[in-house]
Amino acid sequence: MSRLTTTLVLLVGLLAGGLGVTLLSPPRVDEAAARAIAEDVVAKAKPEPGLTASAVETIVADLIARQPKQDVPQAAGKVDQSTLNPMIEDYLMSNPRILQKVSAALNAELTAERTAATRTALTELKPAIFEAEGQIVLGNPNGDVTLVEMFDYNCGYCRQALPDLAALLDTDKNLKVILKEFPILSQGSVEAARIAVQVAETDVDYWSFHQALFTSRGQVDKAAALKAAADLGLNPVTLEMGMNTPKVGSVIEQSYRIADRLKITGTPTFIIGEEVIPGAIGLDALKTRIANMRACGATVCPATDQPG
Fold first, then answer.
1. Which domain holds residue 184?
2. In a domain, 307, yes or no
3. N or C end of the chain, less CB within 10 A?
């Protein structure tokens, strides 16, 4: 979180109470004045998501409403921003730990919001992610844990993750793996994905095709995909003629829709349980999450107290 954003959060709190001591009682800052100052700071900054001008106004109004009522009437005077703003900055610079507390609190709140939004999206997208007709399924189709990978054939990190996936398929006989074409890096990636979608509908070993493309040299494009398919006995002419059909396009479009809802912008991205995992996190990390899914139904199990 930027220092200016954090300062804006603290400014609201200080105007509601803490700075009142520094200002030696009345006149206290009324709602209109507080909003004016908050809007002035927002106008000069670029706050992070979740801290818009309207959000600041809401916080200001709420804090002012919670101020203890005083028996002595207070005059709501005009606030001189040229005097008040330096005082706020001095106070914050003299109490830097307050900035850390507010930053941690805001980050925790934003993380919780993102987690909740992801959980909701995963629930709504469950049929498209886990139950789509004709999707590529490897391993045990009736496995007790499902691992989804969204990939691009020209993704270097996906190439690095291939041995991890191979190891999981080889050692975990109760794991279901779903592969989703997510071509985002080049037109060649899109062409290769369109060939791959058709290969997945045939009786050939898709995993062999998948490995062949990821272990090939150079750019993976239509030519590379057609060669890998031909090596498995498929007719490249038929595949090229069918690569632009609506049925093929709909499979890839579905991946784009999933990615849009889940805010996925890179490959590889893994989905397991209620967690969306960006990047090639390594075999051990994947194994840990799979084991946790079996142990407690989540990728992270609650810590248990160990006897002393």
1. 127-296
2. no
3. C
